[in-house]
Amino acid sequence: MAYDSALAALADPTRREVFERLRSGPRAVGEIAEEMPVSRPAVSQHLKVLKEAGLVADRAEGARRVYYIDPHGLGPLRKWLDQFWDQALLAFQAEIERSRPAPETQSREKNDESHHHARARPQKRSRQRSSRTRF
């Protein structure tokens, strides 16, 4: 399966951190390695694994390599993850529909509300009229 290598590559926490540092845009190895607890050569090795998994790509910029997240490589992983999201949304929708009152109950409640409001309005008007007549 196409997403297996992506999941295996992201299983390592340091590799995940390298991958996450590319979220904000393309970076050179030195930039990625800054403030990481591993050496530049180690970061290069992690990038090699991510590249083999299809998660990152690189391009030459002068004498250095710049790495970026490869959206095409994320496709199979995203497709695999989306199936869980779709199932979760369907389950959520089913729960909402299950807990929603039946349509006839809703219309009955609506009618009860409108009768209550209809009765309340004339009383307010009659009080207003009576207060006007006192003056």
- The H/E string reads HHEHHEEHH
Mean pLDDT: 83
Number of DSSP-assigned strands: 3
Contiguous uncertain segments of 5+ residues: none
The number of domains:
2
Fraction of residues in H or I helices: over 70%
Could you tell me how far the N terminus lies from the C terminus, measured between alpha carbons in angstroms?
86 Å
Strand proportion, as a percent range, falls in 5-15%
Description:
With 135 residues, the protein is mainly alpha-helical. The protein has two domains: 2-73, Winged helix-like DNA-binding domain superfamily/Winged helix DNA-binding domain (Arc Repressor Mutant, subunit A), CATH 1.10.10.10; 102-135. 72% of the residues lie in helices and 10% in strands. It contains six helices and three strands, in the order ααβααββαα. A three-stranded antiparallel beta sheet has the order 1-3-2. Helix 1 packs antiparallel against helix 4 (40-52). It is elongated and about 75 Å long. The relative contact order is 0.10. The model has no long low-confidence stretch (mean pLDDT 83).
Give the structure's gist in a few sentences.
The protein contains 6 helices and 3 strands; from the N terminus they run ααβααββαα.
Task: Based on the model shown, name its key terms.
single chain; 135 residues; mainly alpha; Arc Repressor Mutant, subunit A; 2 domains; three-stranded antiparallel sheet; 6 helices; 3 strands
List the helices and strands and how they pair.
Layout: H1 2-10, H2 13-21, E1 27-28, H3 29-33, H4 40-52, E2 56-61, E3 64-69, H5 71-99, H6 103-134
Antiparallel strand pairs: 1-3, 2-3
Helix pairs in contact: 1-4, 1-5, 2-4
